[in-house]
Structure formats: C-alpha cells, structure tokens
Amino acid sequence: MTRPDLVIFDCDGVLVDSETVSNVVLAENLTRHGFPMTAERSMALFVGGTIRGVGDTAREMGARLPDDWVDEIYSEIYAALRAGVDVIAGIPELLDRLDAAGIPYAVGSNGSEEKMEITLGQTGLKPRFGSAIFSAHTLKTAKPEPGLYLAAAAHFGVDPARAVVVEDSATGATAAARAGMRCLGYAPHDDGARLAAVGAEIFDSMFAVPGLIGLGQAAEGSCPTTIAPAAGLPRRPSPDTPGISAPTVSGWRATAMGSRSNSPMPRLAGGFFGASGGRRTGRARPMCFAAFMTVPRWCTRHALAAWWPNLCRNCR
C-alpha cells in the first residue's frame, strides 16, 4: 500500500478520549433543561457536529434552551475536560511511526482552539502538531464541509488525494470524502456502519494504522484489525465454507476451548491465559469484564474475539 504524504487526525475521540466526557456533561445539561438525555444517546445524535448545531438540533427536538446556552455548555464541558482526559491508546506510538517515516501530520477539528488547548495541551500532544492544528472556529468552516482538511493539505503543500484522514464520525468521514481524501474510520465500540456508509475504511485499534498506510506491521503488543489464531489454536472454520457444517464449527469451538462445556472460563483461566500457557508482553494487564479474569492486553481479543465478538471491547 502506498504511503500517504500527510495524515490528518480528528481530535475528539481520535487523539484524546474526550467524547465520553463531553457527552456526559451534555446529557446532564439537556436533561436539566427539560430534555431527558443519556450520554449514549447524546453520542449517537451529536458526535461529529458543532455545539451550535447540537443546540439547534436539540431545540428542534423540543429542548427549551436559553439564549446563552452555547456559552453555558462550553463552560461546563471545558471544566470537565480540565479535570483530565486520556490519550487514545496507540496514538503516541502512531505519531512516533509517522515521525520515523518522515510523514507530516495535522489536526482538523470542529472543536475550538480553546478546547484543543485543554485536551491536547494537558496530554502533551499539542507540541507534536506545532502549528498544524486547524479549528472550525478559526477557519469558519466546519465538517461535513471539506475546508478544514483542504486547509491542512494546503498548509503542507500536499495533493488532497495523497492525504489520509483518521476520523470517528460520519460527519468527519463525509468531509474527507468531499475533500477527495482517503478516510480511515475509527470504530472501537461498534461495527462502524455509519462510517462505512460514507466511504470510510473501518478499523478498531490505532495500533493497526501503520499497517493500513504502508508502514508495515502494527506495533508490538497491539491487536491487529484482522486477528490470526493464537499459537496452538486451530483455525476457525466458517459455516459458509463448502463442506463445513454447523456441528463442525461447534467442534472447532470446543477443541479450541479445550472442553465442550458451556462454561470454558475455568479452562481458559488456568490454561491459555495461565502462568504456564499465557504469553506476557510486559504491559499492564487490564481486567477483562467479559471473562472476569486478568489477561494480557494483546491476547484478550486474540483469544476471545472468535467466540464472543462483542464482549471484550473493554479490554482493547
């Protein structure tokens, strides 16, 4: 795959995990103004838009918001963000790979420069982007219009067709398509259908990006987008494969688990993931809330995704 001449990142939800924080605050605010909202529904409705656009949509849906609501919600969101946000896993390593390859990168966000000063500033990412931070508030153009991304390409003198955008919203992916840029759609929590519908190529781990843009394999300790079977596990057959029946697939599952029991967890805990069989990466090992056990980060999905594809997302 040909390497790009520029990589442009969205900010919220792509570089920093600020979407969750912002939407919790937004949901609480809208509920307080008589428009019941959850953080999950807020993310489904509003991610990728501007705050002013959120207010307009909420009013159309029946919310009773004061005239100074935009200033009010910005104040509340910024206060919450100042309390701390996390860098998306794999972003520092990805930027290191781009630096090593001599590929420049930029930020293009519908958020304000003040917001990015808070989120990127406190995480140490802001100096890495230098002056290549483009805000819809400053340029007076917002996604889904392509102006932010075209401005970033012009800043580096790069043909838009030679740039890659990393986005987590359909709004941003639409902007990339309108700019004539390839878009990688980051979907760590769902199947990315809304991103794919507007032409984005779906992935779920930032560690996979180097392989998607021609920089070789994903960083050590990562989970690639396409998961190969772990050592010692048989390759999973598909019911759609000629000559393969559903019982054969069930037999594969039982063989891989080491038992036909409906509860393979004890076997896995003491076997593949145990001290004698588990592979250690030297990284902290988070709790797998699906399996109720502590497992190495890299092999949580590696071993479990084939059996419970939607249950181990907390372990990525």
Describe the structure.
The chain has 316 residues and is α/β, with parallel strands linked by helices. The chain folds into 3 domains: 6-16 and 86-212, HAD superfamily/HAD-like (Rossmann fold), CATH 3.40.50.1000; 19-82, DNA polymerase, domain 1 (Orthogonal Bundle), CATH 1.10.150; 246-315, no CATH class. Helix content is 41%, strand content 9%. It contains 15 helices and 8 strands. It has helices at 19-32, 39-46, 51-60, 69-82, 91-101, 113-123, 126-129, 136-139, 147-156, 170-178, 193-196, 209-212, 246-257, 265-270, 297-304, and strands at 6-9, 105-109, 133-135, 163-167, 182-186, 201-203, 287-288, 293-294. α10 links the parallel β4 (163-167) and β5. α1 (19-32) crosses α4.
Number of strands: 8
Strand content: 5-15%
Helix proportion range: 40-55%
Largest sheet: 6 strands, parallel
Radius of gyration from CA coordinates: 22 Å
User: Which blocks of ≥5 consecutive residues have pLDDT under 50?
Assistant: 220-316
